[in-house]
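Hi R.,

As promised on Friday, here is the backbone we talked about, encoded as structure tokens. Could you run it through your design pipeline when you get a chance and send me back a sequence?
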């Protein structure tokens, strides 16, 4: 701390001193404002920020009869309360920094105000809000003043000391917002007591509650020149207090957020209380008590005589003594008191003629040592400024714990040291005392404190810790049985802790080294656990299979991160271990290829199974085929082979009859190999299945032949399946008929009748003459009489039907011949003003170019033309040009080629006297030109171009073809505007 000469200008102080003024009291605000009270009843206000000063005369009597008793200024320097005594009376004034004249508080007349408590949280420049005044007769009053009103809003009486009436010498107040309203905390001191008040609501409500309950106080008897109460404010909140009492300095911390109830029912917001005895500050010979007190964050400033002693609040040791550069005159009068602006770290000492400034620079720089000497390690760490200071605190804690043989706690502190002690020194300490557990704890804590960039050191320490864990587990296992029972919980605890360590350090531990360690110590479970952490799932699954725990192995394989190849690798072992769980797992696994599971399924199928046992492979294959719609031939073949081996062939037949490709646009209806299926069914003697396969392979003769050995009805059904080949169908039925006749052996009439009754089942396909060769030669004709007569009647009906069809055909031919004759005489009437559909010129005009008419017949010089039944007429050349333009390229080339051939032949078509074309009656008599012209007519005039598909196709064509860019320019619309700056075009 440093002291300075008076902070007021010498001229200013001398000017007031010349008038007889002397400084009696002094207060400092938090914004560089200092206020002095003089012996002549004046208030002097000086603003360091602007260097401005002014004074106000409060005296109301004759000059020199009144003086300032106390002056109080708020933390913002806007509001000031002063009490003036003398001349037989006492008055209290209020003044604002903007006022030039003070206002007397008339309700306080006759009361000497010794202390003021400002509401720091709610006070503003314009309003004081609630202010508590303490008087010398033990009363507390509330006052509130607004600057704009120029007078007090109210002055209320709050409280009075009745048990021990003493003057209030110091007041402090804090507020806090709660859900129930504002809570007030107040402390007040008299020469011998410190009172505390608290409550929620208004100040009236708070103090009214103390009518029925006692006030909490602390009593310290003793004489003191001036009792004072100070709060140290940090970040606008009071954090600790100090009371200058007769017995010493009573101080402690303030906690307004976590109060606890006292036995009397009041809330106590004071903690860590202590009493600083004056005997520690002065020699016995001095026997002087302080006149004034100022409080900083860590120190007390005590005014003893003309010296200021700086005392550390924590260690209670004198840090420094401050001497003032005083004149002999001021020394004789002595320093009057101290005042402070603790938030700015500025303190002031004053006498009648001088103001001295005490500045504080970084007072907390050595507090960590103070707390460390007191073994308050948490506070010491909180005040450390750099890592070296923290290391010293951790070292002190570690050595204290090590000396007390609390090795685990010592290890935690040693792990936090970086600079003043090496890693090797610390580890050797624990090794020398054979404390493996503490060494392990140190390594673990060291890992927590290392930076991520120290990868090499992290890996080495993690590996060492792993070995220490394994050693600890082995030592627990080597204990005798009794000890093992007692250490069971410790054993399980260390296993759980070790696994947590492996999980946390899986990314920094070397995989191969760690697995070798686990294997060498025989920790198989932990090896599997670590392999799972490192995603070495093959090791994990192999272990579970060896232990017979198929379900756990399948759970591992179900994890998304497990490669699908492991499913195929372990499938043979898993299905033999637990077929049901394995198949259930397969059915829930996505993207599983059943083809790669075939070896495992074949191995399972090769083992014997009980008759009533569910075949798990069949269940899975059915799931693949029906649910997943798998099309792999291998899967279908395997399922078919398993069906074929079953005693009941119903499932096999259903599978063969199922059409898996049903509903598809293309592709087979089945995916198994029919040749393999046939060989398999023949081997297993599944004849019905063989019949179905023969039929499916279109081997109907073989199917019917085999079906006749099994069931004639099945053979009949197979024969009926052939519908598109009548001869083959008849042949198949003959095979059935032969079998039926041969089965009905003998010449008895009833047997022959049964054989003949078979003919009705063929639905007329077979006749009696077809099956007669199958009967024996000695059969009598009488037995076939009825069937032969029936067959002859059918033939007669067929002959009559054929005659009728021939008559109908002859009649139809005659009608066609008549229509052809009539068609040759068909004509159309053309008006003289009929227009061509293309050129819009008259159709009946003289030919303008006889070369264009070459190859056609016309009357005179008239141009050839075409007339359609719909009424449209076209010049021949116009029609050709229109069709060529609208049709596709190949057709247009064909028409041009025909036209070129007609031109080369140079002939003209024959015309009658009316100018119409003469049609030839016989195609055989047509000339080559007529044939070409007929082909041309078919190409261009088979249908009207305006009423046919040709016109419909033109709808999809664009107005302007890609090669007609020049034509698009003629479609542009450009507005003509002389004054326009831009041209606007619209392209259609």
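Update: got your reply. Pasting your designed sequence below so it's all in one thread:
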């Amino acid at each position: 701390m440093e002291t300075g000469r008076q902070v007021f200008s010498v001229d200013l102080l001398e000017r007031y001193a010349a008038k007889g003024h002397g400084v009696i009291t002094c207060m400092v605000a938090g914004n560089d404002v200092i206020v002095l009270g003089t012996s002549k009843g004046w208030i002097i206000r000086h603003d360091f920020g602007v260097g401005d000063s002014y004074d106000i005369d409060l005296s109301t009597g004759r000059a020199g009869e009144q003086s300032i008793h106390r002056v109080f200024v708020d933390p913002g320097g806007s509001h000031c309360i002063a009490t003036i005594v003398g001349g037989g009376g006492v008055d209290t004034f209020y003044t604002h920094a903007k006022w030039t004249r003070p206002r007397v508080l008339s309700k306080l007349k006759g009361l000497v105000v010794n202390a003021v408590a400002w509401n720091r949280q709610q006070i503003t420049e314009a309003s004081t809000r609630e202010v508590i005044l303490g008087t010398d007769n033990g009363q507390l009053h509330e006052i509130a003043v607004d600057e704009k009103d120029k007078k007090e809003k109210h002055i209320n009486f709050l409280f009075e000391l009745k048990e021990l009436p003493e003057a209030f010498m110091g007041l402090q107040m804090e507020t806090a917002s709660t859900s129930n309203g504002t809570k007030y905390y107040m402390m007040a001191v008299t020469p011998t007591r410190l009172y505390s008040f608290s409550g929620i609501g208004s100040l009236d409500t708070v103090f009214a509650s103390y009518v029925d309950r006692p006030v909490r106080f602390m009593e310290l008897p003793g004489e003191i020149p001036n009792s004072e109460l100070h709060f140290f404010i940090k970040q606008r909140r009071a954090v600790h207090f100090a009371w200058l009492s007769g017995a010493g300095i009573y101080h402690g911390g303030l906690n307004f957020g976590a109060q606890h109830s006292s036995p009397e029912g009041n809330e106590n917001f004071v903690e860590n209380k202590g009493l600083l005895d004056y005997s520690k500050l002065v020699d016995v010979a001095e026997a002087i008590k302080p006149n004034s007190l100022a409080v900083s964050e860590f120190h007390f400033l005590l005014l003893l005589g003309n010296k200021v002693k700086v005392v550390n609040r924590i260690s209670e040791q004198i840090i420094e003594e401050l001497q003032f550069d005083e004149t002999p005159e001021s020394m004789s009068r002595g320093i009057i008191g101290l005042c402070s602006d603790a938030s700015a770290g500025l303190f002031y000492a004053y006498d009648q003629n001088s103001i001295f400034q005490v500045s504080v620079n970084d007072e907390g720089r050595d507090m960590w040592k103070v707390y460390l000497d007191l073994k308050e390690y948490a506070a010491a760490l909180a005040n450390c400024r750099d890592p070296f200071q923290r290391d010293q605190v951790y070292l002190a804690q570690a050595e204290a714990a090590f000396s007390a043989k609390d090795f685990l706690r010592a290890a935690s502190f040693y792990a936090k040291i970086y600079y003043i002690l090496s890693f090797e020194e610390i580890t050797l300490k624990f090794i020398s005392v054979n404390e493996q557990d503490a060494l392990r704890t140190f390594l673990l804590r060291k890992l927590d404190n290392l930076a991520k960039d120290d990868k090499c050191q992290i890996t080495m320490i993690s590996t060492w810790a792993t070995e220490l864990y394994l050693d600890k587990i082995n030592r627990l296992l080597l204990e005798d049985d009794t000890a093992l029972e007692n250490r069971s919980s410790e054993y399980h605890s260390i296993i759980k802790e070790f696994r947590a360590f492996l999980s946390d350090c899986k990314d920094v531990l070397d995989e191969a080294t760690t697995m070798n360690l686990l294997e060498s110590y025989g920790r198989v479970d932990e090896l599997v656990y670590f392999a799972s952490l490192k995603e070495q799932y093959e090791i994990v699954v192999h272990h579970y299979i060896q232990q017979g725990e198929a379900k756990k192995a399948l759970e591992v394989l179900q994890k998304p991160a497990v490669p699908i190849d492991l499913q195929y690798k372990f499938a043979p072992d898993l299905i033999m271990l637990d077929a049901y769980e394995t198949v259930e797992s397969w059915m829930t696994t996505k993207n599983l290829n059943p083809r790669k599971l075939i070896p495992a399924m074949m191995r399972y199928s090769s083992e014997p199974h009980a008759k009533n046992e569910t075949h798990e492979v069949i269940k899975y294959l059915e799931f693949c085929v029906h649910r997943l719609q798998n099309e792999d031939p291998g899967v279908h073949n395997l399922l078919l082979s398993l069906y074929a081996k079953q005693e009941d062939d119903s499932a096999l037949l259903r599978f063969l009859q199922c059409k898996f490709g049903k509903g598809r646009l293309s592709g087979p209806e089945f995916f198994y190999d029919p040749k393999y299926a046939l060989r398999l069914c023949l081997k297993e003697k599944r004849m019905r299945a063989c019949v179905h396969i023969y039929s499916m392979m279109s081997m109907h003769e073989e199917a019917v032949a085999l079906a006749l050995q099994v069931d004639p009805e099945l053979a009949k059904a197979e024969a009926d399946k052939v519908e598109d080949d009548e001869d083959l169908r008849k042949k198949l039925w003959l095979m059935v008929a032969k079998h039926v006749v041969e089965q009905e052996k003998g010449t008895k009439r009833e047997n022959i009748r049964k054989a003949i009754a078979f003919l009705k089942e063929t639905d007329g396909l077979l006749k009696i003459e077809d099956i007669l060769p199958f009967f024996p030669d000695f059969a009598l004709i009488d037995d076939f009489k009825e069937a032969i007569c029936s067959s002859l009647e059918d033939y007669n009906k067929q002959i009559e039907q054929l005659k009728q069809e021939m008559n109908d055909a002859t009649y139809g031919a005659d009608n066609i011949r008549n229509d052809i004759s009539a068609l040759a005489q068909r004509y159309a009437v053309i008006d003289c003003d009929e227009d061509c559909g293309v050129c819009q010129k008259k159709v009946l005009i003289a030919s303008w170019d006889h070369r264009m008419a070459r190859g056609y017949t016309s009357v005179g010089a008239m141009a050839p033309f075409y007339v359609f039944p719909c009424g449209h007429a076209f010049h021949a050349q116009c029609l050709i040009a229109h069709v060529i333009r609208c049709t596709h390229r190949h057709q247009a080339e064909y028409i041009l080629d025909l036209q070129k051939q007609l031109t080369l032949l140079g002939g003209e078509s024959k015309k009658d006297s009316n100018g119409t074309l003469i049609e030839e009656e016989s195609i055989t008599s047509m000339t080559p030109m007529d044939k070409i012209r007929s082909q041309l007519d078919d190409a261009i005039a088979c249908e009207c171009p305006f009423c046919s598909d040709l016109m419909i196709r033109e709808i999809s064509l664009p107005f302007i073809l890609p090669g007609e860019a020049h034509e698009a320019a003629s479609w542009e619309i450009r507005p003509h505007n002389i004054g326009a700056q831009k041209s606007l075009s619209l392209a259609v």
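One thing I noticed while checking it: The chain has a mean pLDDT of 81.

Thanks again,
M.
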